[in-house]
Fold this protein.
Amino acid sequence: MIQKQKGTYDVYDEMGRKILYIEDLLKVLMEKYNYEYLRTPLFEASELFHRGVGETSDIVSKETYDFIDRGNRNITLRPEGTAGIVRSFIENKMYARNDLPVKTWYYGPMYRYERPQSGRYREFYQFGVEAFGSNDPALDAEIISIPVNFYKLLGLKGIKVNINSLGDTESRLKYKEALIKYLKPHISDLCEDCQNRFLKNPLRILDCKVDKDSEILKNVPNILDYLNEESKTHFESVQKYLKQLDIEYVVNPKIVRGLDYYTNTVFEVEASVEGFGSQNVLCAGGRYNNLVETIGGPKVEGVGFALGLERLLTALEFENINLIDKKSVDVYIIPMGNNEKEISMKLLNNIRMNGFSADIDYLSRNIKSNFKQADRLNAKYIIIIGEDELKTNTITIKNNETKTEKKLNFDDIIDYLDKEFKE
Ligand code: ATP
Ligand code: MG
């Protein structure tokens, strides 16, 4: 028996309906925020992620799914959404549009070769947004408000918003120097990954999951002390707007994010419920004013975030939030025999095309087990077509809740359903 690959999962039954509910809500929310759907391919040139996400990031250094295609190209399954969106933004010359900022959203599977564990899969789904062409701190606040409002609409309560600023390039360089100076005498006490990061990208040491509780990392210089005036003002404005949007947050100078492309604002929303587990970061994002240029476009600012679907589902389960009702159909049709089947199929189609959900017996059950099946499907109405009905061009319709029956002319069914469902 062939089984699913490590770190992947199937979606069926209730989980499928839950996911569809969440996806519907996403679409509605994005309409309210005036973001436009953007879809990019699942695979891109490997080079895109090396440049976009950064060579030293965990994602590129050890998590990508790479392969060489039959035309000898280096291909990578997308590990995240931003690089592809930026590629598309540049390739389709969206920067030249006169309705900036370009505000986009995406949703789909991402691939990372990670050690599978709870909240960590090799194929997982992200919803995310990217907005280009404005450096307005109000837009940073809008971006942060999207996941927060989304979680609020879903009814999640135990969430905590952490924000930080990495400053612009100048501030970041100053901090990097201070950090190197501070870490240098301690570096041999940190994990192997951190020793590597120290040479290539010391900022990422702050994001280390192994050393994060060590005394060394607890006492690192505070990045916020190294922001220049402009970066400081930007960060203060973001916070002012967050207050106007009723968003509670904590300033956490340790947040640097695992990706290399952030500038100024970065944030994470975590599930702050006791016992949630270690994969508690529900979503993360920030501003990336140099990324479009890094990937080969003009200098255009960007800001965005990405949210994991699986961790969201876990959080909903954890807080006992059940999004969906019992499964049900409006009408279940029981043809009493083969002679009645043809007209029943016609009726089935007619009912569906008039906006009601309907199903029919496909197993030639007897009447008793057909009633049981109608209950299993939570049918609101049952239509029975037997010999008598066939002769007189009528049907018997039964309200499955009140158990009352009625005979109707064949042509009056839709009107009848219309009236019943209005009530
Ligand atoms: P982590 O620190 O947990 O590895 P990350 O920094 O790699 O996360 P991002 O790349 O910023 O995460 O992705 C944003 C969100 O996507 C995460 O907050 C999480 O909800 C989700 N996510 C990331 N990797 C995975 C994965 N392997 N499986 C499931 N969800 C994931
Ligand atoms: Mg990761």
About this structure: Residues 13-32 form the longest helix (20 residues).
